[in-house]
């Protein structure tokens, strides 16, 4: 990154040996008024910022201040800063002078380089330094919290293990004990663990140098920014982006993804070293972030710290600081931690002596110890989550307890439950009731959080959709789709939802992901459709195959689980998972595990994963260790891939029944409007075709007319056949080739070749037939994944959806013609056409904790004269040609035929009943489901009848 302009304060700052040393950072979050002796205000450009006294101003803020001061001096001849600001600057200068005397021990070069890099970039002319928004606030604590040593992570004791490094000095022992106790308490209490994790227990390591904070009170918007920044260890290579938040304020976001919520008045700067992040070592957060910031105090247990203790503790360890640190600050800093007890004056806290602060550490440590000893409380009480009943806190049921729901259908609940009133449709089908007192209402598992005040309920949906029966894409959900949403989102049930092709499983799944993330989002401003990274960790989005995972923006089930190929024995796999703190963290942080295309998951794998979940989540008696699972797919479609041919369907797994509370079969077919065609496909699906159906398919051999140069898309079972067919069509075009080569990155980028829908190398010519691989403009205008079009020309119009590079320069071009992008004419429904320039997009294989294992930048197109049936699964095509001659796998014929939207748009070659292969186990599985559904409906109508006759007899009497 170029640096054309340097700020003096930046230079001073970066010339120091380590991060500046805060002198009095401990502060209570309980009473902001009374902490005024610690927090200082400074007014810059009319905005008031707070900083911690003694920490000094962060470089960007001081630069602003200096600049403002200079301007004001120029204009008025004297400083117009108020007395407090003058004092602030004086303190800052004094502190910097002091710290200049401290020599760099040379160990933190990386950090300093990074800081310098960042500083200079922020102030460079070609960066956005000139555009620094008025509302920028730099987190002093964050700067201070950045690790200054490369190897400090090694000192971290692993979560739940006893091998905490022994320490020598008393204070160090104390500190470690504190860490130990804190971590153990997290490990012991699953829900507390979640809470603490999401509340950012920061940097509880034994850092040899540098400062860090433990904070249980936060500004979620800022956390989100920080998480976004730290999610990518190399984030400094990403240009911070300036965006406008919902208050029309400028905000700088580093590494902002689509799902990153820019918070008000925030900027996050810093660098974390590229080492695996241990459990519960989250990102440091400044406790105070200016106007507009939100605070979400975190309750631990109501009996933990007395009433209403808003625990906010910052601690710094400096005993191992370089010898050049001056002894006074070291002594001070060794002992800084504030854990104020209830009723204790925060003012007193803030002015407490070092000894007082030491006592606070002891107090917290003793408290933890006492809690451990206090295991006289029944285990179930300690680990049970608290559910919110009105404004009361009451003990609720754990999710696992919902297994013994009044479920008369052997683990299945068919659409006979009540919908929550807020999403009950007007035209609720048989089985739905609008009665708010659902038959399950008193059995519902509670949110896995203790909630005292609704405002603080992290599970409270932050955004109520304007119409809860509509999807984010604007589709109106069917009653069955709504029922699934209700069961999953409102009632926290583990669900398997299935249905024939085109019944809207994918649409529903996408909506489920949105709503679950909103539910688990700690902060989502009204009217915005994004969530924070906490939600991303809590809602693990996976699929059985890479292509399916890419389609829903998740990762493969194998990647989530951290089991590699997963072929080893269960105990070996469990050890493998335990060997990675990140993987363990993923398993433990997740509240919901979503698996798409579950028909391709093998029974053995499902059992292994379920066992891993129970072990890693430390709840051996609960299915999936208490994890809510949401599985979807159609077992009549593609089966598990297994070369040995021994793969079993996952519904045959021992754990299947205990995993699923509710099974729902979606019945309304959306893809095919023609009921005759839908019925024909249903017969193909179950492999029981009438003669008339067979004949109808056999006469569909006529060629389909070309319209606007578009040919029907050929579906082949093998990739080789697809490549040959597309290659032949491309060669037939006389126009010049233009190559678009994907840019891949990430440690597992080799997986992209197989698993990413976007091609590694795309050769295009004017006239080439292509398919869109991503919805454009949110699908508005009809340009959706699966839309087919033709390359009309190339253009230089910048249509990229990918952020520019770290130096604000465009990414190197993907094609040999520089920045040329294809203009495509897409054919839309109703014979309309629409032209657009298709820009590059990004696919990433991401683990739920945000780790990007592979990333591809490519234009979202593939050649579409032909597609593999595998790739076509999930697509909707208006003109399809299916040749069943080479079909070899069960479900393949059905997947291929069911891509078509109409009989008019379908050409079928070599149709023979034998080519329609269905696995008998799948037939039996679905027959059982239907029987169970009928039984459930019968028992419900019986119950309704009983009720009605009881009501009429009571009226008569
Ligand atoms: N509630 C709805 N209202 C209107 N259209 C819908 C609805 N749900 C789904 N659709 C449409 O139906 C078509 C098929 O939907 P979707 O791809 O979700 O089905 P699916 O069950 O996942 O199919 P497959 O099993 O073949 O992948 C899509 O064009 C989608 O837009």
TrEMBL record:
Gene3D superfamilies, A to Z: P-loop containing nucleotide triphosphate hydrolases (3.40.50.300)
Compositionally biased tracts (Acidic residues): 95-110, 122-133
Catalytic reactions on record: ATP + H2O = ADP + phosphate + H(+)
Keyword vocabulary terms for this entry: ATP-binding, DNA damage, DNA recombination, DNA repair, DNA-binding, Helicase, Hydrolase, Isomerase, Mitochondrion, Nucleotide-binding, Nucleus
Composition bias, Polar residues: 195-208, 323-334, 377-406, 938-947
Residues where ATP binds: 499-506
UniProt keyword Transferase present: no
A Gene Ontology biological process term: telomere maintenance
Sequence ranges of Low complexity compositional bias: 67-80, 341-354, 948-957
Any one Pfam family match given in the protein's UniProt record, by short name: Pif1_2B_dom
Membrane-spanning parts: none
Entries under SUPFAM superfamilies matching the protein: P-loop containing nucleoside triphosphate hydrolases (SSF52540)
Biased composition (Basic and acidic residues): 359-376
KW NAD (keyword) present: no
Entry's localization field: Nucleus; Mitochondrion
Similarity comment: Belongs to the helicase family. PIF1 subfamily.
Protein name: ATP-dependent DNA helicase PIF1
Gene source species: Entomortierella parvispora
